[in-house]
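Write out this protein's structure.
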Amino acid sequence: METVRPMVVVPKEGKLRRKFAKVLNIHKLMGVAPEEEMKKIKFDSKTANLTESFYKLEEEYERSLALEALLAKLFATVSSIKAAYAQLQHCQSPYDSIGIQKSDNLVVAELKTLSELKQCFLKKQVDPNPERTLVLAEIQELRSLLKTYEIMGKKLESQYKLKDSEIVFLREKLDESMKQNKLTEKRLNQSGQLCNPLDNLHLSALNSTHFVTYLHHTVKSTRGFVKLMIEQIKIAGWDISSAANSIQPGVFYHKQDHKCFTFEHFVSNVMFEAFHLPYFSTSSSDSRSYKKKKQSKAEREMFFERFKELRSMKAKDYLTARPKSRFARFCRGKYLQLIHPKMEQAFFGHLHLRNQVSGGEFPETSLFSGFLEMAKRIWLLHCLAYSFEPEAEIFRVPKGCRFSEVYMKSVTEEAFFPATESSPESEPRVAFTVVPGFRIGKTSIQCEVYLSVS
């Protein structure tokens, strides 16, 4: 930065004093009358006062401008010190000896400039060209800020590269851990120390924990099929909101994505219909004449054997081997009830799949494969329910009921949030049951509900 040079201030002579003395000397020599001379002196004194005031204002302006230039140079120098210090820190990691030396020299030079500015202020030495100094100081400050931002950008870029390398390292570590876990799991399975709680299960050891475990798998497969069905609805060009309102009209949804629970409610209602009957069908003559009675041990063993037999096979293989079994009739009836002809026509443009299923065939489509997986899980859950003594009972919650943590759990958390403009302040009520609940003796398994405001 340019060194401050002191300017010599020459004191000004009092013009009024010189003029007054000059006039008196002239009049002494020329003999002018004193009265006329005094009038001229009074007029000249007024002019002199105005001139003196003007010079005072000019001096005050020059003094404030010089002080402003000094402050501008001060702030510009401080900005240069900050930029030099930032450069010094940046050169330390990674270590750059040449860069450190240059930055250190720059910091020292700027500190010397600060010392010179201090001396100029104490000695009241003003800048001879403050306008030029103001412009140069502003340019210097902007350059220092630009340099500081460049250094910050380099620092952030280096941090980004460091984090990126850390992510790569952690991913490699995660992959290694997953491989190790798979090897450990394989060893434990081979040694028999790790197995599914439903593997090697005996009827005498059956408890509610096993039912809850399989219910979790059943709900997971149901939601997988609902996802496939919603994708087909979107591809067909149907309006999701209209379809959801036709299933459950007048429901307030906290989010648009929550309308998927309406479709899960519909699928669950269809698939779990007649779950309380031992033959899992309302069309069976045995079911129409059925009266609830205590299950015998032989009947419970029969349901448990069905559970173990079908669980160990793929649904498609079981249907191929036993096309006239109760499970086959269950799959055909539920599919025809679940997929309406208009829906299938919109999905595929024809009714060939429906005709195949009605004729006892099982088509190879992703939608039907997802349906078979869901149907198998629900059928096995029914077999497991009737393996208990007493058998597991299904229950649903009617619309408009108050929420109870004992028998219910909400599929979303938004229902418990404070009221907003979009959701008026009122107690959330049950809009519909998404997943039914179950009772096994004195144990209650909560049903999953969607809560909404009326």
